[in-house]
Structure formats: structure tokens, C-alpha cells
Write a structure and sequence with these properties.
Elements lengths: L11 H11 L4 E5 L3 E2 L39 H4 L5 H6 L2 E4 L6 E6 L2 H10 L4 E4 L4 E6 L5 E5 L2 E4 L5 E2 L9 E2 L2 H9 L23 H17 L4 H16 L7 H12 L5 H14 L3
Parallel strand pairs: 6-10
Antiparallel strand pairs: 1-2, 1-3, 3-9, 4-6, 4-8, 5-6, 7-8
Helix pairs in contact: 6-7, 6-8, 7-9
């Protein structure tokens, strides 16, 4: 007698992910602690420029789904494929890429932040979280952390946990939210630039050479229309390659580059990671 083929159980979080994907929402699995699965050891997180299905094509050519927000997809074949079989079995939550579907999440991390939002921001769809609320607006923008106490902006190039559809009518992204990033970028994390042991001989004949290089790097970051992670990493790599070994590059120069990156939605952590990765790649 032929034995019946066992029916494979679909993990709960995968069912949720497939339901969202059917509605065009790019999703990915999260480990416990809201940590993404590291799917591609060949690609540095900060050098991944995006994936076409998120409307932000970039440099990443990973053979598997890439890291964090760049792994988010609405393709059911990818979600159920072998690259993520173990991930869905171990997943503790589902995340999605808000900017990939034209949304912005105002992440309110505690009661005081929620009170501030109710006084300051237009009412919109809200989703309760463990400690506060997600306020979801129609419209995408650069993401930023800690725009004020307990308030993060999650939109392009980040992921947010899926905690349910929420309640209320979603409204258009207001200028009051956009201005939180434009007027109040996250503070720049101090950076120390390594100088080669024994000192280095400066090959810059005038201070203007270094100043011109920093100004061009700032402009390159500001002009980036897509693939911000990749642009920031490559720009940091170029600056350190040209100016990082003689001791002329200072914390003030690095702070300018970090500030330019943060106006495009990069967080201080992403800036610091990209800077560290660039130094490591150059053997500094």
C-alpha cells in the first residue's frame, strides 16, 4: 500500500509573511530580539545597495537574500525557498520594509513619546507595540533614529516589525514628520581616525586639497538618489584611501561625512559601521 505523502507544516510566521506578500508587502524573518537573519556572508551589510523589488536598485548581487531590510521581498518563491527554510522555522517575528510600499512608521518607544505624538502629529493608523505605538503614514522618507527622545523614523532602508494592521485611517505623511529628520538629524558619533604606526608623510601640498576632497565626498553622498548604504560605504572608502594614512584627516572631517550621510537617512550606527568596514578593507 502506498503511504500518503506527509503534509509539511507551514510555520506560523511564514503564513503571515505569505499573506503580506500577496498584498505586495516586502517582508523578512526576524530572530528573537528583532535581529535579522544573516543570509549572505559574502556581502557586508553596509555595502548592500538594495534590491529591485523594493524600488531601490543597488549594487548587491548576492546569490541568496541579502541582509536586513535589503532581504525584504514579496516574492513567494523566495520566501518559501531553501535559503530561508531554517529561518522561518526559527523566526520569532516578521518584519517588513515600510519604504518599499510607500509608508513611514513613526516608532514611539514609550508613553511620553506617545503623548508627544498625540499633541503634535496628525492622527493616523496606529499599532500598539510592547512599550508604545507605531504611527503609520502614507508616504516614504529617509529613515532616522532618535529624532527626539523615544522616537525613531522607519521608512526607506530599514525594517519594522509587523505587529498587525492597526486601527484608524492612514493619513498622508505630514511635513511635521519630515522635518524631524531635516531639522534634527541624529547626533554624529565621534570617530577616531587611525594613523599608521611611526607616522605618515603628508602628500597633500596644500590644505585646500584635503578640503576639496571632503567637500566632494559630502556632495557625492547628498546627490545619491538610491543605494545610500553603498554610496556612503564607497565614499568613506575613497576618502580614507586618499587621506586616511598621513594623519591629516581629523574627527571634524569624519563628522562632516557622517552628517551628510545622516541627512540621507543613515543612522549613526550605520555610519560608524561603514567607516569601520572601510578602514578594515584598507588594512587601517
Amino acid at each position: 500500500m502506498t503511504q500518503p505523502t506527509p503534509i509539511r507544516r507551514v510555520p506560523h510566521h511564514l503564513r503571515t509573511a505569505l499573506d503580506l506578500a500577496a498584498r505586495g508587502v516586502p517582508v523578512l524573518p526576524l530572530r528573537a530580539g528583532k535581529v535579522p537573519f544573516a543570509n549572505c556572508p559574502a556581502c557586508l551589510y553596509t555595502s548592500c545597495g538594495g534590491r529591485p523589488n523594493m524600488k531601490t536598485p543597488g549594487a548587491c548581487q548576492c546569490p541568496r537574500p541579502c541582509h536586513a531590510w535589503a532581504a525584504a521581498t514579496a516574492d513567494p518563491a523566495t520566501l518559501t525557498g531553501p535559503a530561508w527554510t531554517t529561518a522561518w522555522e526559527q523566526a520569532a517575528a516578521v518584519a517588513y520594509h515600510p519604504g518599499g510600499i510607500g509608508l513611514t512608521v513613526v516608532d514611539l518607544d514609550h508613553a511620553d513619546a506617545v503623548t508627544w505624538a498625540r499633541r503634535t502629529l496628525p492622527a493616523t493608523r496606529t499599532v500598539p507595540t510592547t512599550r508604545g505605538e507605531h504611527w503609520i503614514y502614507q508616504g516614504a522618507m529617509p529613515s532616522a533614529n532618535a529624532v527626539r527622545d523615544g522616537v525613531d523614523i522607519k521608512s526607506t532602508m530599514v525594517y519594522a516589525r509587523w505587529l498587525g494592521p492597526g486601527t484608524g485611517t492612514m493619513t498622508t505623511l505630514p511635513d511635521t514628520v519630515r522635518e524631524l529628520v531635516v531639522k534634527k538629524p541624529s547626533p554624529v558619533r565621534p570617530v577616531t581616525v587611525a594613523v599608521p604606526s611611526g607616522g605618515g608623510e603628508c602628500r597633500h601640498r596644500t590644505p585646500a586639497y584635503l578640503e576639496r576632497g571632503i567637500a566632494m565626498a559630502e556632495q557625492r553622498i547628498r546627490d545619491a538618489a538610491a543605494g545610500i548604504h553603498a554610496t556612503v560605504y564607497r565614499t568613506f572608502l575613497a576618502v580614507l584611501s586618499a587621506h586616511g594614512r598621513c594623519g591629516c584627516l581629523t574627527d571634524a572631517h569624519a563628522a562632516r561625512l557622517f552628517a551628510a550621510a545622516q541627512t540621507k537617512g543613515e543612522s549613526p550606527r550605520h555610519c560608524a559601521d561603514a567607516w569601520t568596514n572601510a578602514r578594515t578593507a584598507l588594512g587601517m
